[in-house]
């Protein structure tokens, strides 16, 4: 894969740098450029490494999925892919509430509640976390978000509705591609006119993907848990996400 950067000529000042992405202003105040990095962190930045090709793969997977979510009635910030690692997006103010949707027990849910990983949940679980690197994105509830002014009641209702709509699209999408969507994390932003839209990314960094046949992990848990084969798992997910499906 080549690393072109046709977005460079549009890039203005760096507005935000997160663990996996940089966000740049552009000449148009309504648009940003997002650059996906190869940097990987886990355990709130304690574990750091580079995953070769990750920026390109996460950019490509997100650029493939977001227009389909948009077509399914979920408004997103995505405008177009600019280069192998960059995309043009609508400028939003990120709501500092990360939304996790769980279909199968895993990760922090299993640890917190003593439920064996892989236990199917008979109802989708929507969780909220406060987006704060300094605090390690702690679990909150909607009252906390309301009382601290991070989101309004209307925004929280909309976020939940959209998160479940994303789930309804993604679960069968991945199922058709031999992948179980165990859980995933979403971020939302507000536009100047007050609409809540899907932002950030959907990728092996932000989702748990298990192979439908073998339950092999095809996501960032391979890095978090030192399972090896990280790059191969990301490349395999890109292949499955973009491959045409029969029927
Ligand atoms: O670690 P935990 O089980 O809470 O993660 C649930 C899901 O949210 C996983 O798919 C994980 O990749 C994602 N996540 C994330 N960013 C975080 C925390 C979790 O993308 N800061």
TrEMBL record:
It is an enzyme of class 6 (ligase). Pathway: Purine metabolism; IMP biosynthesis via de novo pathway; 5-amino-1-(5-phospho-D-ribosyl)imidazole-4-carboxamide from 5-amino-1-(5-phospho-D-ribosyl)imidazole-4-carboxylate: step 1/2. GO terms for biological process: 'de novo' IMP biosynthetic process; cobalamin biosynthetic process. Residues 15-240 form the SAICAR synthetase/ADE2 N-terminal domain. It holds the Pfam family SAICAR_synt. Keywords: ATP-binding, Ligase, Nucleotide-binding, Purine biosynthesis. InterPro entries: SAICAR_synt/ADE2_N, SAICAR_synt_PurC, SAICAR_synth, SAICAR_synthetase, SAICAR_synthetase_CS. This is Phosphoribosylaminoimidazole-succinocarboxamide synthase. Its EC number is 6.3.2.6. It catalyses: 5-amino-1-(5-phospho-D-ribosyl)imidazole-4-carboxylate + L-aspartate + ATP = (2S)-2-[5-amino-1-(5-phospho-beta-D-ribosyl)imidazole-4-carboxamido]succinate + ADP + phosphate + 2 H(+). It comes from the Bacteria. Belongs to the SAICAR synthetase family. GO terms for molecular function: ATP binding; phosphoribosylaminoimidazolesuccinocarboxamide synthase activity.
């Amino acid at each position: 894969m080549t690393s072109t950067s046709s977005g460079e000529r549009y890039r203005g000042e760096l507005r935000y740098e997160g663990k996996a992405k940089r966000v740049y202003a552009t000449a148009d105040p309504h648009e940003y450029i997002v650059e996906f990095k190869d940097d990987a962190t886990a355990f709130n930045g304690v574990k750091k490494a580079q995953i070769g090709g990750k920026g390109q793969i996460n950019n490509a997977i997100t650029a493939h999925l977001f227009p389909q979510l948009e077509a399914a009635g979920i408004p997103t910030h995505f405008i177009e892919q600019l280069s192998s690692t960059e995309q043009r997006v609508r400028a939003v103010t990120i709501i500092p509430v990360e939304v996790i949707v769980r279909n199968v027990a895993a990760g922090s849910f299993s640890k917190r509640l003593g439920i064996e990983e892989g236990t199917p949940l008979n109802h989708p679980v929507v969780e909220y976390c406060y987006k704060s690197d300094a605090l390690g994105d702690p679990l909150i509830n909607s009252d906390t978000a309301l009382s601290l002014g991070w989101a309004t009641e209307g925004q929280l209702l909309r976020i939940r509705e959209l998160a479940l709509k994303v789930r309804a699209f993604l679960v069968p999408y991945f199922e058709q591609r031999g992948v179980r969507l165990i859980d995933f994390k979403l971020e939302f932003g507000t536009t100047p006119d007050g609409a809540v839209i899907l932002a950030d990314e959907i990728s092996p960094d932000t989702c748990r993907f298990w192979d439908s046949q073998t339950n092999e992990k095809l996501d960032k848990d391979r890095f978090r848990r030192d399972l090896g084969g990280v790059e191969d798992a990301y490349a395999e997910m890109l292949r499955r996400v973009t491959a045409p499906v029969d029927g």
